[in-house]
Amino acid sequence: MTIAIRHIRLINGTRAVRDDMTILVRGTKIVAVGPSKEIRIPTGATRLNGRGLSVIPGLIDCHVHLCLGGEADVVSALESELPSYTLLKSARHAQATIEAGFTTVRDVGSRDHSIFTLKQAIESGLMPGPRIVGAGLAICMIGGHARFIGREVEGADQVRKVVADQIAAGAGVIKVIASGGVLTPGTSPDDVQMTAEEIAAAVDTAREAGKPVAAHAHGASGMKHAIQAGARSIEHATLLDEESGALMKRYGVYMVPTLSALATTAACRPSCGIPESALAKAKAMTKRHKASFKQAYDNGIFIAMGTDAGTPFNYHGENAQELERMVALGMSPMDAIIASTATAAKLIGIHESVGILAKGMEADLVIVNRNPLRRIEVLQDRDTIVGVMKAGKFVAGPLAKA
Ligand SMILES: [Zn+2]
How far is the CA of 138 from the centre of ligand 1 (A)? Predict the structure, then answer.
């Protein structure tokens, strides 16, 4: 079965934009891309007229929590649910995510290993959803941030054991908590959490299995620990300073800004149900967060898009809001798309199969009827999406029903 998407504007995940292009998809893969007049369409192929439409690579969100539903108090919500209910909720969130054009997510913390069950169910075609690279439980210190979706550890030996255990369960990335956080009561974002030695033990054990480490860090000291220990990405990077920024640049560490997380929390009124402590912490950091993002962008630090979807009022399916937030802070729409496709794929380590639209890649793509390079926010409008293709099949949008 071959599908020819013809006469379309191609935004391919590198810097190229070309009009009147044709993409040929066979099975799960892109088998040809080129100017429409040069691509020969095999007889029997399904022909789609892409005139007036644009195509971008399937979007990638590098920081979600499918087990959280954007509740005002996510900690209480999880504590009041049975794990089986949380899994059903996660499945619903996975569907909302792919309908929004996100064909891959990196899930960096769930209440148990059921994220790997969900991944398996999606891969076997049982239910719709994005490709998932999951961390499973986050690894944190005793009493640390994110313990409601984490495993509390003490000492390098225990870290090694727990990391090996996570990888055996199916983790494609290891999440460590290197500073306090916003949502966990009693922790401060400025505090360092886990020792440098513990984080290094996590990185070493993960590396032996070929897996990267994503480190949650708001404060600069936590970031420095994680960068020096060899983390591949800093999640949030809220309070970046000169030194931590220079270290990220030197070691090629990725920033996953999650601007949506702090912004949606900080935008709330005191009566919205978000615990007072979380609201105060978010409001105090938003300005610095924006400055940190600008600093990273201006200094050429790798930026991979992530929303922290699932945190309060930061809903699955609204992931594309992050692109608008990045553009509002000075990033070009083209760079926002690259951060959400090619760069995200590199961070996750799947860039040989997804992230750009080229011959030999998996056919993950989004066809839209407006130009996101002119107005990036159109990606948030469901009427913009004409078709979401994952592995060669239209799975969402009007084309999935055609
Ligand atoms: Zn998170």
Answer: 10
